[in-house]
Amino acid sequence: MCTRPSFLQRGVSLVELIMFIVITSVALTGILLVMNVVTKSSADPMLHKQALAIAESLLEEVELMPFTYCDPDDANAGAAASAGACAATPEALGPETIGTVTEDRYGTSAPAVNASFDNVNDYHGFTMNSGNGGIKDIYGTAIPALSGYSATVAVTDQGAAFVGTAGDALQITVSVTAPDGAAVTLDGYRTRFAPNSLP
Questions:
Q1: Is the alpha carbon torsion for 177, 51, 167, 165 positive or negative?
Q2: Contact 159, 166 (CB under 8 A)
Q3: Predicted TM-score (pTM) of this structure
Q4: What share of the chain is helix, strand, coil (3-state, %, to 5)?
Q5: Are the C-beta atoms of 50 and 146 separated by less than 8 Å?
Q6: Is 103 helix (H, G, I), strand (E, B) or coil?
Q7: Over the stretch 130-163, which tens digit does the pLDDT of each residue have?
Q8: What would the DSSP string read from start to end of 27-79?
Q9: Which residues contact 131 (CB under 8 A, 6 or more apart)?
Q10: Which one, of 62, 81, 59, lies nearest residue 70 by Cα?
Q11: In terms of DSSP bridges, do strands 169-177 and 183-191 run parallel, antiparallel, or are they unpaired?
């Protein structure tokens, strides 16, 4: 009769099996605790994504505006090669006041013919927060689902640094804060590529 050697018949003992289960359980518990702490302390990804979407949308809106020496409502806006060539209203950082009416994003400052923002730098200092109606679309309609968010826009002259001429390049900074306090900041740049940069 042929018998196999005893070392081939040896299996896992009960003590070894119990030790394996204990060690694996301790390691798994540690990993799950770390994952739990990370999950609790991380920002809600949906809030962060929504804040990013608001910031991207607002930055794109500002970047698509004209960048002229004169207010686009000015008679010389299309031909002026400097602020001195404007008929009445040269552009400056922030919204212009034409007569008694100050421009706003929504064009609600009646009785002006066109009182809405019409140039990149009109957005300087613009804010949307719970104190002034919250996040609104371009028509001034509040978006209730975004009531906990706030947004600010800052426009700064970067012309001397980028193109060598002050006033010919602007940095646009859009900051959005989510309801949980997480902030998203995006920067964009707009250069004056011709004397009249109307769209």
A1: positive
A2: yes
A3: 0.72
A4: 35, 20, 45
A5: yes
A6: coil
A7: 888 899 988 888 999 999 999 999 999 988 787 7
A8: HHHHHHHHHHHHHHHSPPHHHHHHHHHHHHHHHHHHHTS-EESB-TTSTTTTT
A9: none
A10: 81
A11: antiparallel
